[in-house]
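Crash report, auto-generated. Payload:
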Amino acid sequence: MYEEQLNDPGAVQVEQRTAPPYESAIERASLVEEMIYEGMRDGVWSYYMSLHPSDRAAVLTELPAGIRRSLAQEMQPETLAGLLDYMEPRISARVLRQFSADALADVLDLTDPATSTEILGRLPGGKRLDTIAAMEASRPVEALLRYEEDSIGRLADVRTPVLSEDTTVPIALDRLRLMGTAAEEMRSLLVVNNYGFLVGSLNPVRLALARPSATVGQIMDRDITSVTTSMDEQVAVQIMSQLRVSELPVVEEDGRLVGLVRAEDAVEVVEDIATEDMYRMAGIGEERITGPLAESVRSRFPWLALNLVTVFLAAAVIGLFESTIARVVALAAFLPVVAGQGGIGGTQTVTLVVRSLATGGLPRGLGLRILRREMILGLIHGLVLGAIIGGIGWVWEGNAILGGVLALAMTGNMVVASVAGAGVPLLLRRLRMDPAVSAAVFVTTFTDVIGFALFLGLATIFIEFLL
Amino acid sequence: MYEEQLNDPGAVQVEQRTAPPYESAIERASLVEEMIYEGMRDGVWSYYMSLHPSDRAAVLTELPAGIRRSLAQEMQPETLAGLLDYMEPRISARVLRQFSADALADVLDLTDPATSTEILGRLPGGKRLDTIAAMEASRPVEALLRYEEDSIGRLADVRTPVLSEDTTVPIALDRLRLMGTAAEEMRSLLVVNNYGFLVGSLNPVRLALARPSATVGQIMDRDITSVTTSMDEQVAVQIMSQLRVSELPVVEEDGRLVGLVRAEDAVEVVEDIATEDMYRMAGIGEERITGPLAESVRSRFPWLALNLVTVFLAAAVIGLFESTIARVVALAAFLPVVAGQGGIGGTQTVTLVVRSLATGGLPRGLGLRILRREMILGLIHGLVLGAIIGGIGWVWEGNAILGGVLALAMTGNMVVASVAGAGVPLLLRRLRMDPAVSAAVFVTTFTDVIGFALFLGLATIFIEFLL
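Recovered output after restart:
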């Protein structure tokens, strides 16, 4: 009976996804590339247009820059506009940079203002102004561009329909009908008073079932949480996730309604922020693993170069103690032990602190408490690891004093690792900088330099017992 | 005029959030703790119950374990059930572990099945079975527990209302009215055929505005994307984010409808997955930065201990070349240079690969291509850094051969760092293990051990020119 059902054409229109759709974006892009090289322009178009817009966007992202640009230039404005919602603004801006201001304006007029704003924000200043001037629907974009980057104001959907509180039910229903299918996407209709201030929200189903004599103000919900435009997008998303709501109205500081942020946009924000933090911690800029090599070099080399300062600082510290090492060469073997354990300890702390700051798990004003907590943890780990490592060192070299020096240096370096791991991101935040920036480089500087200095310094003091 | 408006009590019921609500969960918890120590039981309750459920959950999370348990035990089942939706399942399970199976069943009967399932999955086996046996609403929970952990089936809301395709509009509307306020939360009503197979979705607003003679099947959308229960939750969330939809129906492999996943739940999944990946990469288990110390030690110490193997391996390599170092002590100073640069390079690659695997940016079947790409990048970075570091080494020690040895070792180690950084997570995935697990420890093992071996090995070969 089930099989009959599955053969019914009405039933199998349901698209069932069992494999991720992006698995094949790269293969699809290769196919498009091949077809273009073989001159099959028509074949390319009929194949490309048969894809879902989100897949078209994924394929466009994976194509080499040259083909990507020529493909985009041949598209109708509405086709291209339909893809921009699904593409990374960084890639969209790169594709659209070659367009004339007029052509670009035609595309962006058909695009969601929040997406247009993100793209415009990545264009050079002159091009941006020319494009906005050429746009017909420039007002919402100009309004959004007033808000700071990474503020929730930038993400607001300003085209969300709004009802006035003294509208009657039949008139509100008529407005809903006029919107056509767009009305169906509304989860709640925002209600404002005569001054444009947000005063409540109304569920469209409640509206549809209400008695005709009521006004919107009488049946709306007055209990509504909103956020202000200047709020950091990450904080706003935290609130949305904590309250488990799917939409959050955005208002100006004075309470005037601006628009609505939706949970499905928040998913992307959360993902992007996490990626950015991870990359910054590891010393990576903006790149895609399947992107061009030059992009990857630009993204990673600056941090590798910065790390040169770190490693030569560490080298200089070892250089200071060359005469000690000359007398007890065995010390050299233990250098990576002290530094390496400190490095992992520091990485643990810095990762925990950076991530807790990002997800709201670490409120302001607790900096000193966290610093003390991590210091105690570093001491505990340092004492245990020091005992183990000191013991191994003792047995290995048959010298108890060497074991003691190792144990002391290890304990000290674990405390330093914890303090640096917690202190560096907390300090960066206090300086209003990104706590994640290059955490790996900064923290290993501390653990290497201080680890070597502690170990070799102690060894120099006790050198007579190590010979 | 604005001020008048702001003083109007009708307008100011709108709660406007300008600061994150969680900023004060720790302070609130301290307040509760103090009141309890001073014996103000009534004060505690009236204060605690005045908070929003999401804030109550946050305060409960921050309280010391003892107070947390006694507070939970004194709550009415419905009050406690109202908090569980907002709490981390790990914390909820810890709070509820002390409850008898009957008491626990009372609470979970009032909780969302997806949340109950997550909590039950973290209880010891016997307790879990006893609790399910004592629950009245055990069927949806039992159904969800059949799906694997981290599969999207576990996250499905199975209580979502479903319409049959041959229901008429007036009857469907009646069903909607019977649901009361719950109906207002529906963004789409799922439609099934007589066999329980998902065949479409219907927007409630379209239903409310439809002519009475139509059936649900006639006005529904047949174009609907669903995912199967066994799909990894992360992949499902990727699809939701890529298609920009706020809900995704979940079906069995054969097409029978199970329930619905919502974007607001996905936000949490995305955030949790990113946190887990970051922590695993850095060698951290499950902990909160404001949690108890013992939890942090349990979370971090295993990785520190594992790293001992790494650092002593590196030490053994240096030990092999002790006679070389004894002859040219200056070599010791350059050890952290080669290893440190390799470590950062490896961290960059491993972070990029792990994150790309997690966000779907790296499809299967591309492993070798990525490995080759990273190897080329490692070679480019290695040649440039090798030239710089070799040059510095030459000037520093006044020995061109030393510079050459450094340059060669640096180039080689950067290639090794890239290959290990890309190869380790790709191999872990092929072995069906988590690619993020302890990436930092594994990759630094490679860069330390091979970096030291390359540098000291080359120095041993050219030792005559270094004296």
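Post-recovery validation: The two ends of chain A are 87 Å apart (CA to CA).
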